[in-house]
Design goal:
By secondary structure, the chain is mostly helical. The chain has 3 helices and no strands. It is elongated.
Length: about 80
């Protein structure tokens, strides 16, 4: 598939240099970089995290781990 992508001039210089140094085309360099970025994003979403609490009782009522401002307020003693 053919498409147009606009890159900042400095980045294009780096892509050309990397392509030349590695014996690949600019297209191959850009494809590889995009594959890495897409794979990294996909694997980050697929991870699950187990939260371990000190006494094993779980989170305190009202604690929302998705709300960093509220967490900071709770840690500072503000409610």
């Amino acid at each position: 598939m053919r498409t147009t992508v606009r890159l900042p001039p400095g980045l294009m210089v780096q892509v050309k240099k990397l392509a030349r140094e590695t014996g690949r085309s600019m297209t191959q360099v850009i494809e590889d970089a995009l594959r890495v970025a897409v794979a990294r994003t996909g694997s980050a979403r697929a991870r699950s995290v187990t939260i371990v609490t000190v006494n094993g009782g779980g989170l305190q009522p009202g604690v929302d781990l998705d709300n960093s401002a509220a967490l900071l307020d709770l840690m500072d003693g503000r409610e």
